[in-house]
Amino acid sequence: MAETPKSPTDAVENPFPSKARAADLDENGYLFHRFEPLEFTGTAWNYFKIYFINIFLTLLTLGLYVPWARVRRRRYFYSNTRILGDGIDYLATGFDLLKGWLLVLAGLACFYALPFFDFGFAYAEAIFLVAVLFAYPWAMNKSLQFNARNIVWRDVRFTWHGSYWGVAANLFIAPLVGLLTLGLLLPLASRMMRHYIAKNYSFGSKRFEVTTNLWDFYKAGLKTVMLCLGIAFMIIMPLDLIYVNANSTLEQLDMNSHQFWIITIFVLQLLIVGLFLVTTSFYRAQTRNLMTNGLRLDNNIRFRSELSGLRLAWIVLQNAVLIVFSFSLLLPWAHVRYYRYLTENTYIRPYNDMTQFVDDEINAGHSIGDAVSEAAGLEIAL
User: Fold this and answer.
1) What CA–CA distances, in Å, run from 18 to 29, 49, 115?
2) How far apart, in Å, do the first and last CA atoms of the chain sit?
3) What's the Cα-to-Cα distance from 23 to each of 34, 100, 202, 300, 352, rounded to whole Å?
4) Mean pLDDT by 10-residue block, N- to C-terminus, for the chain (382 residues)?
5) Which distant-in-sequence residues (6+ apart) come within 8 Å of 190 by Cβ?
6) How far apart, in whole angstroms, are the C-alpha atoms of residue 252 and residue 262?
7) Alpha carbon 179 to chain centroid distance?
């Protein structure tokens, strides 16, 4: 009969006992390895210096420095992200992004030059907007492909395998349909988006896999709706009291009704923006946890996310308030704070022999970069 572990350090209790396979457990029902948290070693002060140097050089070069600014920003966050003790390398250069940036500038120049031509501006503007609409999935796919090729961990590259129509269907049409159905299909769209992104990345020659339950996404959506209604109720009740007692309130504040309602509408707009930030952040944390917890690499390397929806919402709300009242001076601090929370609440459970796995991928030849298409530098933030 097998002996039980003598101390908590002898084995690690399985955090997902109902989902683990027998092959992942030892004879006592424990996982072979711990889930190791990712680390972020950067500081707000160091990023602050990079951020304002980027702004200064962008203004000095009339916008031409933007590609180099993006590379410096990405390289700072990636290099300070530690996975099992090693940072992530970002290999792109400003020249790689410059081609795409010049293409964007040329498109904008053509758009703003249209009113100076004799032909119908309305028709030309409509044609231009339709062209941008169809080009958006292409640009998004190229951006994902470009960034994946330039992200390296332990000398092994990531690769993006998505396609134009896949991006258009899963990352553009699906969320649009979710919104047009008043949110009824938004959990389905969220699952499609998360699955498509996860399944089309590979680390070396190994593709990522993800398994989730659609009902879990709908439960996340239901929690978000309940949170939204609760916050909305807390907002409406005080406003209702103010409306009922408007005359006495005007006398106390010594203002006319016009000034009072302008201020009331302004405050209401701020509260709606705050409600939007809170609910979207809460939902993003819930769906990110579902996707990450169902993620696998080579069937054995597992991942876990322990984001708190309320905590993330509070961070986003605080960041927004501080950015506004500091006139964007605290924007670098807000970026670092947000990224640190995401990183340090993400975990990886590695292979029994992770070194051998990485060596196999290096020998497979996927650490050698290939050419980047001319427009691959287009920046599409997801």
Assistant:
1) 11, 47, 63
2) 53
3) 16, 47, 23, 9, 12
4) 40 41 43 80 95 95 91 95 92 87 78 66 73 86 90 90 95 94 94 95 91 96 95 77 59 60 79 93 96 91 95 96 93 96 94 66 45 36 36
5) 175, 178, 217, 220, 221, 283, 287
6) 17
7) 19
